[in-house]
Amino acid sequence: MTISSELLIGLVAGIAIAVIALLIVRGRAMLQRRPSVKAVASDPRVEQLATRVGMLEKQLQLTRLDLEQALTAASDSLRADIKLIQMQTQSVRGAAETDVVDLAVRLAREGVDADDIARRTGLPKDLIESIRVLHNAG
User: Nearest 10 degrees: CA dihedral of 75, 77, 80, 81?
Assistant: First the structure.
């Protein structure tokens, strides 16, 4: 699910909540204006409104469940993306470190002195000395 569809679901839920609140407020105002509670109770418009509010509440519950599922799916997707990025970053770092060590080995085989290798690669001198010994660079 894309972010835009999640936003759409959120907007629909927000609109549904606003409509329900408006209907409830208007319903209360209508009840307060009527002189008789019995007359209001028998008014078919109030019954229709109550039915509509009930339907909207059910739709809101379904929308809330859909939204929770969408958010869970989006969260899982983001976690997977973060994990992939972390793995790629580690892979790139590992490749860069390997490239630096390969450069140090090549320079050591060419007879470049340890201080120069350290300056070019940024590796510590003790590691460079080990590389020089292992690769018979003197």
Answer: -110
Return the pLDDT at 2.
Answer: 52
Distance CA 87, CA 40 (A): 66
Q: Token pair for residue 4? A: 């835009």
Q: What confidence category does residue 1 fall into, taking pLDDT thresholds of 50, 70 and 90?
A: very low
Angle (nearest 5°) at CA 130 between 125 and 135: 125
For CA atoms 77, 78, 79, 85, the dihedral sign is positive
Q: Using N-to-C axis directions, what is the helix angle for 44-109 and 3-33, rounded to 10°?
A: 160
Which residues contact residue 37 at a Cβ distance below 8 angstroms, ignoring those fewer than 6 apart?
31
Tens of pLDDT, residues 99-112: 888 888 888 888 88
Instruction: Give residue-wise pLDDT tens across range 24-53.
Output: 877 766 655 655 555 545 678 888 888 888
What's the domain range around 101?
3-134
Q: Which of 71, 80, 78, 67 is nearest to 14 (CA)?
A: 67
Tally the domains of the chain.
1
